[in-house]
Amino acid sequence: MTAARERAVAASAPAAPMCPARYVVAGRRAETFDTVSLMLRPVADPIEPPRPGQFTMLYSFGAGEVPISVSGVGRGHELLQTIYSAGAITRALCAAAPGDIIGVRGPFGTGWPLCAAEGRDLLIIAGSIGLAPLRQAVLAALANRARYNRIALLVGARSPDRMLFARELDTWRRRGAEVTATVYAAHADWKGNVGPVTKFIGGTVADPAGTVAFVCCAEVVMRFAARELLARGVAAENILVSLERNMKCGAALCGHCQLGPLLLCRDGPVVNYADAAPLAAKQEL
Ligand SMILES: Cc1cc2nc3c(=O)[nH]c(=O)nc-3n(C[C@H](O)[C@H](O)[C@H](O)COP(=O)(O)OP(=O)(O)OC[C@H]3O[C@@H](n4cnc5c(N)ncnc54)[C@H](O)[C@@H]3O)c2cc1C
Ligand code: FES
């Protein structure tokens, strides 16, 4: 085999998506006491630009690899990835310091179908870390504000100190988004709403037939949110949810993320509720 042919075969081989690209931690920002955003800069060739809602597999050397959504993309192909410290691997990623090397594979998965919301009301519902996979969609929609009738954002957190991207919410308001923030519990000095996001859905849906909703929360909350949207008259096909399951390869090779007929690393995580409703109640095996 010629060298050129070998290179072509290597590029198309199934192992290609399994090979991490090296990224250096160029910045680190604590979003809350347990959630960190890393700005990752490619050391050599960057991965292909991720679309809003796609995820990468982030590899912390010596700890392991986990799926993390892309929260933002910089002009120099930097990736902003926001990580909640849930266990051993996310803890290692959250502890990464500027100069550290992280392995990145991807981007993988479907994204938020922003074009489906053009000319309509875009309603974004996020709970806690659920805003991380939606941040890039919010920024893309605001950059093209005129394409949407309304951009409404309903964000929830357990408490004010856990509100993700809290400093950005006012900027998004100023740029034309209607932002409703709510927490489950707060001290008396909290001036915002109290209660689950589902309590405020009614007030954010103005034109059910013309609404496209993107929803990313804990799965049980997502089911209640979808039911509330359906009850208000939003069509199941216009409710997009993010289904998360345990992932290993990220590239539709290993079957770890199978949910019914779907491989969620390829056919998800963003799935419309007409397809997701019969599957969402199933736990991973
Ligand atoms: C497509 C996709 C995108 C994701 N995007 C992000 C993101 O942007 N930011 C982020 O912080 N996390 C994200 N996650 C979740 C993240 O991958 C998990 O928190 C991580 O795998 C946990 O690994 P760990 O070794 O640190 O903890 P583990 O020891 O594996 O888990 C710690 C605890 O978290 C629970 N857990 C693990 N995975 C999930 C999950 N997917 N959903 C809910 N609970 C889980 C476990 O049951 C356990 O209780 C995403 C997951 C998927 C599938
Ligand atoms: S994670 Fe391997 S097939 Fe989806």
Description:
With about 280 residues, the protein is an alpha/beta fold. The chain folds into 2 domains: about 5-110, Translation factors (Elongation Factor Tu (Ef-tu), domain 3, Beta Barrel), CATH 2.40.30; about 115-280, 3-Layer(aba) Sandwich (Rossmann fold), CATH 3.40.50. The chain is about 25% helix and about 30% strand. The chain has 8 helices and 16 strands. The chain has helices spanning about 5-10, 90-95, 130-145, 165-175, 200-205, 220-230, 265, 275-280, and strands at about 20-30, 35-40, 55-60, 65-70, 70-75, 80-85, 100-110, 120-125, 150-155, 180-185, 195, 210-215, 240, 260, 260-265, 270. The strands form 3 sheets. A 7-stranded antiparallel β-sheet has the order 4-3-7-1-2-6-5. Strands 11-10-9-8-12-13-16 form a 7-stranded mixed β-sheet, with helices on both faces. The longest helix has 14 residues, at about 220-230. It is globular, with a radius of gyration of 19 Å. It starts with a helix and ends in a 5-residue tail after the last helix. The model is unreliable at about 10-15 (pLDDT under 50). The chain binds flavin-adenine dinucleotide and FE2/S2 (inorganic) cluster. FE2/S2 (inorganic) cluster (FES) binds near residues 250, 253, 254, 255 and 265.
What is the fold's blueprint, element by element?
Blueprint: H1 3-12, E1 21-32, E2 35-42, E3 55-60, E4 64-69, E5 72-73, E6 79-84, H2 88-94, E7 101-108, E8 121-127, H3 132-143, E9 150-157, H4 166-174, E10 178-183, E11 193-194, H5 201-204, E12 211-216, H6 219-232, E13 239-242, E14 258-259, E15 262-263, H7 264-267, E16 270-272, H8 273-280
Bound molecules: flavin-adenine dinucleotide and FE2/S2 (inorganic) cluster.
